[in-house]
Amino acid sequence: MRLYLASTSPARLALLRAAGIEPVRINPEVDEARVVAETEAARGAALEPRVLVELLARAKAEAATSAPLAEPLDGLLLGGDSVFVLDGVIYGKPHTADAARERWERQRGRTGTLYSGHWLIEIVDGVAGRAIGAVAVAEVTFADDLDDAELDAYIATGEPLFVAGAFTIDSLGAPFITSIVGDPSTVVGLSLPTLRRLVRALGHEWPTLWNRPGAL
């Protein structure tokens, strides 16, 4: 069973590879801000974190179904999205060093919530069929002794600028995380246990996705 990944995230790719899956990557090219704005306008209210990440995961997956590939899509196509919530405020990628610093000054020594949305579409000979979504949640607690020098050094690497919440647990940011309640892969941006449940819900077995050397 082939898995298509509607994401350009290196972290999601590495996570799947470590789990024995080499996905076919597709850039979904979704205007996330437009999708959110249109949905909020239609609803007349701001989106809750769970609704937001599943909405964007679905938008990415559905956009990827029409990607121009050499062969018709045939397998399972996954879209994903993540946000971090602290004090009721939703945070995506900070993009700038100033924004990353502001977030870390607010979150160090505290606990926030990471929401990871998933949308899985079954595709047979290029025709999209059944689809299913789910959201995984994990609580993340940050070190309270993170000093300014360490924070400066971390931000200077550029890593926190392009990840939800301005932190990672699978790279340079890991030493600054003291505990996680929930599935750790959720914090990376893709919950493997959640994805397994979705695969099985569509009538497929997880081992059929294994296609990397050493996984078979």
Characterise this structure.
The protein is of the alpha/beta class and 216 residues long. The chain has one domain (3-209): Maf protein (Alpha-Beta Complex), CATH 3.90.950. It is 33% helix and 26% strand. It is built from 7 helices and 7 strands, in the order βαβααββαββαβαα. It has helices spanning 10-18, 32-43, 49-64, 97-107, 148-156, 184-188, 192-201; strands at residues 3-6, 24-25, 75-86, 89-91, 111-124, 127-142, 177-181. Strands 1, 2, 3, 4, 5, 6 and 7 form a 7-stranded mixed β-sheet that branches. Strand 3 (75-86) and strand 4 (89-91) form a beta hairpin. The relative contact order is 0.18. The mean pLDDT is 94.
List the helices and strands and how they pair.
Layout: E1 3-6, H1 10-18, E2 24-25, H2 32-43, H3 49-64, E3 75-86, E4 89-91, H4 97-107, E5 111-124, E6 127-142, H5 148-156, E7 177-181, H6 184-188, H7 192-201
Parallel strand pairs: 1-2, 1-3
Antiparallel strand pairs: 3-4, 3-5, 5-6, 6-7
